[in-house]
Every structure is written in C-alpha cells, then in structure tokens.
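Quick note —
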Amino acid sequence: MQQRRATVGRPSGTDGFDFSYRMVVDSRYTKVAKGKSRLKSLLLVQTILQAIGFLLIVLDSQEKGFGNLVVVSISAGFISLFLGELGRRRSQANLLRLYLGLSALSAAFNAAHVVRSDLFLKVTENKDISSLSNYELGEVVHALLCVVLQVLAIITTVGLVQNMSPKRTS
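Predicted structure written out below.
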C-alpha cells in the first residue's frame, strides 16, 4: 500500500473561500487583522521618530562628535523597524519577537544617552526649560516619545503574537 505524502504549505480545505467563515468562527482572526493594522501605524510613527533622531545625531555630531549610545540606538531602531515590518507582513511571530527586543534595546539606549549626558538632570532639577537649548530640548522630548511609543508597541505586538500563535489545549 502506498502512504499518502504530507503536503508542504497550506493544508487542504484552505483555498481562501472560507475566509469569512473563519472570521466569524474564531475571533483571533479579526484580532490579528486589527493588531496588524495598529502595528502598521505604530511602525510608521516609529520610523518618523527614528528619522528625527537621526537628524538630531547629524546636527549634534558637527559640534560634539558621535556618541556611541546614540549611534547604537538609531542603528538598532532602524534594524528593528525592518524586522517588525517583515514580521507584520509575513505574520511571523519570531520576527515580531526580534522586533520587540531590538526596539526595546533602542529605546533603552536612547534614554540612557539622555540620562548620561545630564540632560535629564537639567530638566528635573532646574524645572526651567528655557535654560536648555533647542537641540537639548528636542533630544529629551525625542527620548520620552521613544519610551512612550515603545510601551504601546510592546502592548500591541504581544497581543498580536498571542493571537497569531495556535491555541494551547491543556
């Protein structure tokens, strides 16, 4: 007797015509679609924020030179955005997990740069923003926005990965 070969790829019965049925039966499909949409907008905002951070680095490097933490932060940020977009488009949970790790690392390095350069101390002790230059104020606001956006990205991506993963029956 001949054994049946396992097909690689989509299992039988998923030719695409059952899409509306799956959307009604299992709410995870709609949650994944909404999560992907939210993640797309978050990735767009993060890309804009990374570009602003890059411009801040270029403008600051003319006066002070490149700081290691900032260069690592921006580099890791752009790589994480690339991985996040690939993971979102292809629905690959592993790439989304890598995106989470690298983008969190990027936000942490950005915040560490602000703390290390005494900008945070100037803002909290003086409570007078007028003593800061426009560049320093921009750097502090950029770091705060990165951290807030990172929290939103973590919440969205974790929910998306949980809904993309198969249900566990225990």
